Amino acid sequence: MVTKVPEVTIYFWIVKILTTAMGESTSDYLVAHLDPAVAVGLGFLGFMVAMVIQFSVRKYIAWVYWFTALMVAVFGTMAADVLHVGFGVPYAVSATFFLVALVIIFIAWYASEKTLSIHSIYTTKREVFYWLTVLATFALGTATGDLTATTWGFGYLSSGILFAILILFVAILHYVTKAILGAEHRHQSRNAVLAFWAAYILTRPLGASFADWMGKASSAGGLGWGDGPVSLVLFIFILCFVAYLAATQRDVQTKVTARS
After folding, report:
1. Strand intervals (E) in the chain
2. What one-character DSSP code corresponds to residue 117?
3. Cβ neighbours of residue 194 closer than 8 Å, sequence gap 6 or more
4. pLDDT over 90 for what percent of the chain?
5. Are the CB atoms for 98 and 88 separated by under 8 Å?
């Protein structure tokens, strides 16, 4: 059996951060230049189209997977922003809500499948759990990034640096724990899964914070480049990396056993 998600390499993290950043800037651009209801509708439509394509293929295909991740980034950003802008829900409340939702998904996923490993996504049920988790992390990351940048007054750049430090801390803790645990497979596997999802969650506010810093006006603490140009540049970078991965197959996972 072959998994439906990419191998976790340096390319995975690069493209993941680029898609999170583009999801933020694209969502903000669409909402600012279209009627908000139309923008959210388009985001939802793109999300559903991507999901249909992703679930219709039988193996990992680079452009399909990353198109889906990008649409989840856009729609996940809109979902978090709608609660705050449309319904006046404070970022602290929405961040807590999405965190609880994420925990519930993790609990249900583990109770059903006895694993949260990214190397085990080779059944439809696990793929559903995986994308529900990804959607929740994007919404959570959006609310958390806005919480630190605006509500807590850190600003976009400082928020980005904060989340970069937290990711570095997760990486250091992972390798220190790995050295302490030695070669015991069960503990190593749990440590790797925990570190992966912690870093995965934190890359969302990291990418979003830097995208906002580049795109927002100087009066709001940004560089004033504009959300549209930032989205376009990010898209070009994503396109180049995904084309490289599709051509080289550098991120295709090897076959796994049913026990994964």
Report:
1. none
2. -
3. none
4. 73
5. no
Q: How far apart are CA 181 and CA 177, in angstroms?
A: 6
CA-CA-CA-CA dihedral for 195, 198, 204, 206, to nearest 10: -80
- What pLDDT is stored for residue 86 in this prediction? 79
Chain-centroid distance of CA 180 in Å reads 29
Mapping DSSP to helix (H, G, I), strand (E, B) and coil, where does residue 142 land? helix
CB atoms within 10 A of CB 238: 20
Helix axes 36-56, 10-33, angle to 10 degrees: 150
pLDDT of 81 reads 84
- The tens digit of pLDDT for each residue in 64-102 reads 999 999 999 999 898 888 888 878 899 999 999 999 999
Neighbours of 77 (CB within 10 A): 31
Q: Tell me the one-letter amino acid at 76.
A: G
Q: What predicted TM-score, i.e. pTM, was given to this entire model?
A: 0.91
Task: Report residue 172 as tokens.
Answer: 């250091």
CA dist 77 to 43, 126, 129, Å? 9, 23, 19
Where does the pLDDT of residue 258 fall: very low under 50, low under 70, confident under 90, or very high at 90 and above? very low
Overall average pLDDT of the 32-54 stretch: 93
Closest CA to 144 of 129, 154, 133, 130: 154
Separation CA 234–CA 27 (nearest Å): 13
Rounded to an integer, what distance in angstroms lies between the CA atom of residue 190 and that of residue 194? 6
